[in-house]
Design goal:
This protein has 192 residues and is an alpha/beta fold. The protein contains 6 helices and 7 strands; from the N terminus they run βαβαββαββαβαα.
C-alpha cells in the first residue's frame, strides 16, 4: 500500500481519518482558496480538494494524497468560516429556522499513477429557530470561529439542529469517510 498523506492542517479532518485506523501523515498545502467569479459552490470545493492534493504531489512521490475542502451554503450564498464572534452571530442569525447545506469536496490522488478521484458529498442541516441570547451562549461556550457555518457538529453545535439529512454525517465535520473508503478501496487499500 502506498503511504497515505492528508493534505490538511485541520485537527477535525485528522481526527476523522484516524477512525479508519490506517497510518497516515499530514502536511498543509499552500494554495489560493479564492472563489472564482461565477463558480458554483460544488465546483469550488471539488476544485480546491483536488488542488490541495496536487499541491503536495511534487514533494510526496509514491503517496495517496487526500485533499478535502468544505463550504456551507445558505440559500444561494456561500458562507465560510466566520473567524470572529460578530460574524458567527450574523451567520447563525441568518441560518435560524432555515436549512444550511454543507458541500464537502474530496480528492484522492495517486502520485505514482497520476489517477485522481474527485467527488462532492452534500449534507444538510435544518436549524432550529435561534434567538440572540441562545446564539450568544453557544458562541461563548464553544467558540466555533474556525468552522464553516459557525458551529461544531461534533460538539454542542448539534443542539442548534432541528434535523439533518445526507449520505455521510462525517462530511459535515469536513472529511466524508464513507466516500473516502470507496476511493481507497478503488486504490486497493485494505481497510481494517
Amino acid at each position: 500500500m502506498l503511504p497515505l498523506l492528508l493534505a490538511s492542517s485541520s485537527v477535525y479532518r485528522r481526527e476523522l481519518l484516524a477512525r479508519l485506523r490506517l497510518p497516515f501523515t499530514c502536511s498543509s498545502p499552500d494554495i489560493d482558496e479564492s472563489h472564482r467569479p461565477g463558480e458554483r459552490a460544488v465546483d469550488l470545493v471539488m476544485r480546491l480538494a483536488e488542488e490541495k492534493a496536487r499541491a503536495l504531489a511534487g514533494s510526496h512521490g509514491a503517496h495517496l494524497v487526500i485533499g478535502s475542502d468544505q463550504v456551507a451554503v445558505l440559500g444561494e450564498r456561500i458562507i465560510g468560516k466566520p473567524h470572529t464572534f460578530e460574524k458567527a452571530r450574523e451567520q447563525l442569525l441568518a441560518a435560524s429556522g432555515k436549512s444550511v447545506t454543507f458541500l464537502t469536496g474530496l480528492a484522492l490522488l495517486n502520485t505514482q499513477t497520476g489517477a485522481c478521484q474527485v467527488d462532492c458529498v452534500p449534507f444538510t442541516v435544518h436549524m432550529r429557530e435561534l434567538d440572540e441570547a441562545r446564539i450568544e451562549r453557544y458562541l461563548r461556550s464553544e467558540q466555533p470561529y474556525d468552522c464553516a457555518g459557525s458551529f461544531k457538529a461534533e460538539g454542542l453545535g448539534v443542539s442548534l439542529f432541528q434535523s439533518t439529512e445526507g449520505p455521510d454525517a462525517t462530511s459535515l465535520v469536513g472529511l466524508p469517510l464513507i466516500r473516502l473508503v470507496d476511493m481507497l478501496l478503488n486504490e486497493g487499500v485494505q481497510i481494517p
